[in-house]
Amino acid sequence: QVQLVESGGGSVQAGGSLRLSCLASGSIFSINAMGWYRQAPGKQRELVAAMFSGGSTTYADSVKGRFTISRDNAKNTVYLQMNSLEPEDTAVYYCNGDITSTGRATAVYWGQGTQVTVSS
């Protein structure tokens, strides 16, 4: 069993910053990729940023230059540093992991989500 637990959401004014954390725990053999998605009310869930096992990253165009994804391999934790936040960034942010368990089964896991609210 693998679990992803997010933390760090909250409310901030436009122009402010937040850092999200996602801890992966359980029967982990390897983490192939981890990333962040978000879903605003009435909209589809979208990829915000992802980091792959080799260290490469990808970002949504809307967050490039403002958000940074990073990881601490020793802690099985991925972070999303969000700067220059805009009201359009308001959403529930979900951590996502492509993880191989100790049983050698690979699956995609999701966290429970954390709310980010940016006021103008």
Textual characterization of the structure:
The protein is mainly beta. Helices cover 0% and strands 62% of the residues. The protein has strands at 2-7, 10-13, 18-26, 28-39, 46-52, 57-59, 67-72, 77-82, 91-101, 106-110, 114-119. The strands form two sheets. Strands 2, 4, 5, 6, 9, 10 and 11 form a seven-stranded mixed β-sheet that branches. A four-stranded antiparallel β-sheet has the order 1-3-8-7, with no helix packed on it. The model has no long low-confidence stretch (mean pLDDT 97).
The geometry reads as elongated
Secondary-structure content class: mainly beta
Q: What proportion strand? A: over 45%
Count of β-strands: 11
Q: Percentage of helical residues?
A: under 10%
Count of runs of 4 or more consecutive helical residues:
0
What's the gyration radius in Å? 14 Å
For the termini, the CA-CA separation is 41 Å
Mean pLDDT: 97
H/E topology pattern: EEEEEEEEEEE
As residue ranges, the low-confidence spans are: none
Largest sheet: 7 strands, mixed
